Amino acid sequence: MSHTDSNTLSQDAAFDLLSNARRRFVLRRLQSHRDGIELSDLAEELAAKENDLSPDELSAQQRKRTYVSLYQTHIPKLSEAGVVEYDSETGMVSPTRHVDELAQYFDEESEPISWQLIYVGIASAGLVVYLVSIAVEVPLLRPSYVGVAILVSLVIVSGVHYVYTERQMTNGAKIPVEDD
Predict the structure, then answer these.
(1) Which of 24, 137, 164, 166 is the most core-located residue (most Cβ within 10 A)?
(2) Which residues sit opposite 132 in a β-bridge?
(3) Domain boundaries 11-106, CATH class
(4) Please, how many CA atoms are within 13 Å of residue 40, restricted to the half-sphere of its CB?
(5) CA-only gyration radius of the chain, Å
(6) Which residues contact 40 (CB under 8 A, 6 or more apart)?
(7) What is the DSSP annotation of 25-85?
(8) Domain positions in the chain
(9) Alpha-carbon distance 1 to 37, whole Å?
(10) What 3-state class would DSSP assign to 21?
(11) What is the mean pLDDT of each run of 10 residues along the chain (180 residues)?
(12) What pLDDT shows up at residue 73?
């Protein structure tokens, strides 16, 4: 299940990674800590949550049990999939772009933008205006001007489409934890 950061995770790999509440907790925390978070801090927060205690009330055993689970099982699995980067020297766990990719499985957008219709609309309207510009001789409606306007419109919509898609991947859904 080894992946590089440039590839997209398969659906099976994504579901496998998201199937565990502890991994979802780690991923959710990394969504809000883009610069990374120390494994010991993650373990403490998770142990407190799982035991319904404040971090100050945790026993050393509770902290250790959670830390070992994250260190030996969950972080290596996320790292092998290319979802996180773990620096064993500093103990820092950092997210990759795949964290936001996994969050998309929880996106509840009800009515996505129909980009195909927008492109077809621009192309259709442009074709009509182009044909009119050929049939009618109006100085501002020269066929070359219309062609450039159609091309510029398509480039602008393509740029907006790209930015919209990127924002959806980075600012979209949040990975749920058990209480959400």
Answers:
(1) 24
(2) none
(3) mainly alpha
(4) 5
(5) 24
(6) 67, 91
(7) HHHHHHHH-TT-EEHHHHHHHHHHHHTT--GGG--HHHHHHHHHHIIIIIHHHHHHTTSEE
(8) 11-106, 115-171
(9) 24
(10) helix
(11) 59 90 91 91 94 93 95 95 93 90 68 83 90 84 87 92 77 58
(12) 95
